[in-house]
Amino acid sequence: xxxxxxxxxxxxxxxxxxxxxxxxxxxxxxxxxxxxxxxxxxxxxxxxxxxxxxxxxxxxxxxxxxxxxxxxxxxxxxxxxxxxxxxxxx
Length: 90
Prior knowledge:
- With about 90 residues, this protein is an alpha+beta fold.
- About 10% of the residues lie in helices and about 25% in strands.
- Strands 2-1-4-3 form a four-stranded antiparallel beta sheet, with no helix packed on it.
- The radius of gyration is 25 Å and the shape is elongated.
């Protein structure tokens, strides 16, 4: 459940409370003129958040481009068959 903002072409922005069971609708009807209005996506209120978390929100959902040599190196790990004694002879 939450408040969602919609933009009516004639009346401007309005906020509406919607239940999560109604699904995420990208439209609603203006309470003044009853025209179909599209949802406006606004960023989260981050002015009181921790600095690191705030930066993550500001970067958005855009993935970072990482080169192969910048990727973390995984150490080669040997699989031990001692954990599965029934597979020792196979």
